[in-house]
Amino acid sequence: MGKTLSEIKKVLDSNLGKRLTLKANGGRRKTIERCGVLAQTYPSVFVVELDQEENAFERVSYSYADVLTETVQLTFLDDEQVAMSSSHS
Predict the structure, then answer these.
(1) pLDDT by residue (tens digit) across 50-76?
(2) What is an example of a Pfam family matching this protein (predicted)?
(3) CB 43 within 8 A of CB 65
(4) What CATH number did the domain enclosing 51 receive?
(5) Which domain does 69 fall in, by range?
(6) Which of 6, 18, 57, 85 shows the smallest number of beta carbons within 10 Å?
């Protein structure tokens, strides 16, 4: 990911609509891992629509600063990985 907030936003803008896995710091040594689709980017935040069968709520938003400080880590899945993960279900 980029080294500045504007670079991070550019990377996310170019990956709109792509599937991703996100790992977020949940506090107290707890890590939250979720899958979904990068839905929208705004000037200071981005929105991920979560897979409904796995999560109680529809979407989450994080700031670009969360990515910069590694509070949130994003891994974009290419089509091959998505096909493999869906065939194992």
Answers:
(1) 988 766 779 999 999 999 999 999 999
(2) VEG
(3) no
(4) 2.30.30.100
(5) 5-84
(6) 57
